[in-house]
Amino acid sequence: MYSCSSRKPRIYLGRIPKGYAGTKRTVDYIIQLIRDGAKDFCVRQTAIDILIFTGIRPKDYLGEIRTLFEWVKNKIRYTRDIHRVELLHSARRMLELQAGDCDDMTILLAAMIKSVGHPVRLVLVGFNPMKKKLFSHIYMEAFYKGLWIPLDATMNRPMGWAPPSDHKEVMNVD
Fold it and tell me: Exposure string (b/e) for 121-145, b if CB count within 10 Å is 16 or more?
């Protein structure tokens, strides 16, 4: 596999508003990290290397999505953020760390899938019926032949599975 030279990570420290405004600002930042990651040579090269190494044939678009999903699900360790601190890592940083929570794994997977030409979007989900604007999990979906396919790499579930939730909100990346 292609190895990217390490560079010092950019760090941004800031306050996020409480409630839905904070969720929206965080998602906007996640979307920007996905867009940047999809254009990052290292992220794209890693995605291509995975597809070549696993023998995915050119134009097997569903195979590309499945293979990158399985790679992230199996190679990236789910690790919670620092207590009471929201961390967001770039796709390149995730390739170095090989660990992160749902937003980090979503950033990496979405950037890799987008980097090889597939439209992606985000899904925020909430589980408390009393708090319809409270979202506690994020995953992505990839577009294939007229359908959006859920991809939650944090769970040991197949491509197409989505967590059962009380409410959700879909956010476009493209």
Answer: bbbbbbeeeeeeeebebbbbbbbbe
